[in-house]
Structures are given as structure tokens and as C-alpha cells.
Amino acid sequence: MAQFTNIIRLSFRDYSHEWRMSGCFIMALASVLAPMMILFGLKFGIVSSMVLELVENPANREIRPIGSGRYDDAWIDAYRNREDVEFIIPKTRALAATIQLKSTRANRILSTELLATAAGDPLLQAIVSVPQDYHQVILSDAAADKLNVGAGDEVDASLSRQFQGKRERVHLPLTVIDIADATVTGRNVAFVSLNLLIASEKFKDGRIVSELGWGGSRDYSMTRIFPSFRLYARSIYDVETLVDELEQQGVRVKANVGEIKTVQSIDQNLSVIFWIIACVGALGFSFSLGASLWANVDRKRKELSVLRLVGFKSGRIVLFPVMQSLYTGLLGWLMAVLIYLLFEYLINNFLAPRLNLDQALCYLLVDHFLWALALTVVVAILAAIIGGMRAARIEPSDGLRDV
Domains of the chain: which residue ranges? Predict the structure, then answer.
């Protein structure tokens, strides 16, 4: 243990004594590592911004059915329970999913599209609560603006139908519990509970809605069939798989698969370019550092042989160039990080605004810095093995010849 401690102390004393040469090794490593970190920071920043933009917009994860189909509760539940599906909810026919809204603050009746919603709806991520019963509604920003209402206000909803030769209209008071952001949709939309959406369709089809006191013919059907649905994948990387599976079932759908593939292709191509440059740089630095340590061992052959002469074992002597290589790796990594942080600041604060980018163009996570440190240490140790093998073959007699 004493030999181990002494060899570390001696290697550090020697390393700091020859600070000019040590500084050259450190700057050589930083000149290789810093550009690679900047390149990876740009790659990670650009691709992450593109992926984030795709993910933040729920429309890019939405899979929209084309035309009308037949989907029962079991089919909907099967997809709701999948890990690659974030949200799914049925839709009724477009003609049945329309309601007229009227408020005391606006001199107009607004024909509004009905969309069923529930907890976890990607379109309403910024909203805490969703409609829980027949009398609650979330209005789109466009609808709320035209009706001149806000959260907590009440609107009168009405539905009309032609039933048994008579024109009928029913009214339903709705409380506006929140307003959806303008970025969600520019249409006049009322987000309601699925039960209200189903009640609207049943009323327009002439069937009874006993929960709301709306008359009509009895509905003896035990199986509820929906013509469409709203489905959102959990990730943009799940979209293509879901699209392929739905199409195999004969369900025609539409999704932003092309745009997602473009981002994935950019990520893969930039990763290949980065790793080619990184491998070439790491290999070149390994040989350079290894050759330098080999020459350093030859230059200090007399000093190392004296250490053998006073009782240091070969295994401890090998630690001499290894420890000095580790010092170079740690200090070179630290200098590269400081250089990277300087250029990151310059790129994000001066270049990104000129390109009209709101997000950071270049950035790395803490994990990336730690990975760079680990790889640097590994490369430094591998390079030190060359010098260590040379040092292990030094005999004590080599020092006596120079005495």
C-alpha cells in the first residue's frame, strides 16, 4: 500500500515539475475533445429541438381515421390499454356532433363542434380538470371569444331534430369550466364528456335520453358502435407502428409519418457523422498520447530504474505513466468543458437569435459531460498501457550503468 501511495505522489510531483510538457498534453487533448463536444452539442440541440417541437404538438402524434368505420367499446378499450397509446376516445358522426350555443353576452347563436374529452387528453394538457357530467364544457378560444364568455360563465346549449313529423328542440345549461388555448384549435369547439356526445347523437337519431329527460323511441341495441375515434400515440416513434397495425386491420388512417421519419433520418445521419469524427479523433489522440508516454518513459529510464532498484515492483512502476495519463485526461477534459461552455454561450446568445430560433441551438446534459469524462479516462488508460508496458521492462541494472 505504501508503494502504491508513493508512486502516485511521485508521478504527480514529476507531472507538476514538468508543467510545460504536461500543459502541452492537456491542450492537445482539449483541442481534440472540445470540438467533438461542440459538434455533439449542436447535433443534440438541433435534433432535440426538432423532436421537442414534434412531441409538444399533439397533432404530430395524432392518428386520424379516414372515412367511417365500426368500432365498439371492446376495440376502443383494447387500444386504451396499450403502452404505445397515450389517449383514445370515440367520436360520433359529424352531423350528430354539432350543438348550438348561446350566451347572454353575445347577440348570436354559435354552431359549435362537439368533441368528447377525458383525463389525459393531449389537446388539454394545460387544463387541470375536464368535464365530468352533462353540464360542464371546455370551450375553444375561438368559441369563447365569439360568445364573450370565460371560465365560470354559463351558456345555453340547444339541439334540434325532426322526429315523427315534428320539429323538436331541447335546451341544456352548460357551465364553462375552462378555455382551451388558441394553439389547440382555431375552430369553434366544445369539449364535453363522452356521455353528452353520445346523448346528442341519440337525440338526433330519435332515441330516448332518459338521463336528460329527452323523449324518443326506445334503444334496444346492447352494443354501442362508433364511426370514428381520436387516437394519440405516446411517442412520435410509436406512430408508424400503430399506423401499420391499423392499416393491416383495414382501418384507413392519416398521420405525420413522413415528417417524423425526416427527423429520425436527420438524427441517425448526424449521429453517424459525429461518431466517425469522434472515433478518428480518439484514435489519433490515443496513438499520440501513447507515443508521447513511450518517449517519456525512455527519457526517464534512469529515474524509473532507480525506483526498481529501491524496491518498487513492476506493477507499481506501470502505474507511473498510467497516473500521469489520467492527470492529462482529467485536466484535458476539464479544459474542454470550459471551452465548450464558452462556445455554447456564444452560439446560443449570438448565433441562434440571428437564425430566428427561440430554443437553444447547442446544449448538452450533465450525463453527456460524464460520458465524455468516462470515455476520456478509458482512452487515456489505453494509451498509457503502451508506456506502462515499456516501463515494466526496465531493469534495476539500467540505473546502475548510469551511476
Answer: 2-55+262-401, 90-231
Tens of each residue's pLDDT in the chain, 403 residues: 556 676 677 777 877 877 887 788 888 888 888 888 888 888 788 777 777 666 667 888 889 998 888 899 899 999 999 998 999 999 998 888 899 999 988 888 999 999 999 998 998 888 888 898 899 999 999 999 999 998 889 999 999 988 887 888 999 999 999 999 888 888 999 999 999 999 999 998 888 888 888 888 887 666 788 999 999 998 888 888 899 999 999 899 988 888 778 777 777 777 788 778 777 777 776 676 666 666 666 666 666 666 655 555 555 666 777 787 788 888 988 999 999 999 888 888 877 676 666 667 788 888 888 988 888 888 777 777 766 665 556 555 555 555 5
Given CA atoms 54, 59, 62, 67 in this order, what sign does their dihedral have? negative
Give the Cα separation of 192 and 135 in Å (integer).
Answer: 9
Q: What pTM does this model have?
A: 0.67
Amino acid of residue 334: L
How far is 376 from 323, CA to CA, in rounded Å? 14
Report phi then psi at 182, rounded to 5.
Answer: -65, -25
Spell out the residues 6+ positions from residue 146 whose beta carbon is closer than 8 angstroms to its own.
106, 108, 110, 188
3-state secondary structure 323-391: HHHHHHHHHHHHHHHHHHHHHHHHHHHHHHHHCCCCCCCCCCCHHHHHHHHHHHHHHHHHHHHHHHHHH
Helices 301-309 and 2-17: crossing angle in degrees, nearest 10, is 160
